[in-house]
Amino acid sequence: MSEFWLISAPGDKENLQALERMNTVTSKSNLSYNTKFAIPDFKVGTLDSLVGLSDELGKLDTFAESLIKRMTQSVVDVMEDSKGKVQENLLANGVDLTSFVTHFEWDMAKYPAKQPLVSVVDTLAKQLTQIETDLKSRIASYNVLKTNLENLEKKSTGNLFTRTLSDIVSKEDFVLDSEYLITLLVIVPKSSYAQWQKTYESLSDMVVPRSTKLIAEDNEGGLFTVTLFRKVINDFKVKAKENKFTVREFYYDEKEIKREREEMTRLLSDKKQQYGPLLRWLKVNFSEAFIAWIHIKALRVFVESVLRYGLPVNFQAVLLQPHKKSATKRLREVLNSVFRHLDEVAAASILDASVEIPGLQLSNQDYFPYVYFHIDLSLLD
């Protein structure tokens, strides 16, 4: 499973023994894989400042997770036909995400622990905000290019009624630069080919004999040329419609066709040129955002542990990786049982959801006797 529970308990003898009991029970029951989660000693500051940071870190946590999801989706969108290789590009510090989380070490160079906590949080917030700003700009630019290219490609697909004809026809298919004659393109149902050949010359006056030629087909019909005098165009269109032949409004313009082809070539070239740099930027900055996110989780554990357990700072953080989705309920019961002494009233409420305690509104989704945070990497699959 790519799900982690990050918890902490006071670091006194009683609770270290409780952690040992938890490790023993979860190991014997094959409930989870547990590792210590190292968090440096930060400058605590005042309790009032920690309360403010607790709220700010909660919002920053949500923002970071949202940003990582968007970056993951951007990698999926950019890679298009190589979606099976997306996970190869979603790394943190060059390793897979699970390995990074389970071997987490605080980056002292990026986020010096000796700085005030508010400064560390500010650094993380500015970093993530800058990544989001750059992401929006880069993806918007790439999407405009991609949309323009898709619109052109759509013109080259579809049936003969809707698709562009510039890549089908050639100069030799038309009578050009004639004051009197013009070549039209007519879509004929496959079942009516014989009828077309028999009748096209007589659909109106002034149709050039033996001037028709099949130049393209799709599943429904074929595209035929026919040459006639300009002055009978309208009459020919009416008669063609009566016979279920459709005249496509197309007049050969060599400059326009050349422009379309050059535009397609340019867009393909631009997309190819942007693909590599954009994917590299996404890989690098996904890593940075993910690393920042796990640092935020560590900060939240520190702040909440100090607020919950008091001073001096003394707690032990542990990372649990549940082995099976079906085992999470049992794992939760073990944790609540082992640490119920940290908050007897809350633990009783959680362990027996049927018991209502007047004045106490608790949910096992938002409160536990111990400090708890969730890391769900399946959101990035």
List keywords for this structure.
381 residues, alpha+beta, four-stranded antiparallel beta sheet, 10 helices, elongated
Q: What does the main sheet amount to?
A: 4 strands, antiparallel
Overall 3D form: elongated
Spatially, the strands of the biggest sheet line up as: 2-7-1-8
Residue stretches low in confidence (pLDDT < 50, at least 5 long) are: 353-365
Number of helices: 10
Oligomer: single chain
Number of strands: 8
Percent in helix: 40-55%
Series of H and E elements = EHEHHHHEHEEHEHEHHE
Structural class: alpha+beta
Beta content: 5-15%
Radius of gyration: 34 Å
Q: Report how far the terminal alpha carbons are from each other.
A: 12 Å
Q: Which whole number gives the mean pLDDT? A: 89
Could you characterize what this model shows?
The structure is a single chain. With 381 residues, the protein is of the alpha+beta class. It has helices spanning 13-28, 47-79, 86-89, 97-102, 117-155, 193-199, 233-242, 254-309, 328-338, 344-351, and strands spanning 3-10, 32-36, 181-189, 213-217, 221-229, 246-248, 315-322, 371-376. The protein has a four-stranded antiparallel beta sheet, with helices on both faces. It has a four-stranded antiparallel beta sheet with strand order 4-5-3-6, with helices on one face. The longest helix has 56 residues, at 254-309. It is elongated and about 105 Å long. The N and C termini lie close together (12 Å). The relative contact order is 0.21. Residues 353-365 have low confidence and may be disordered.
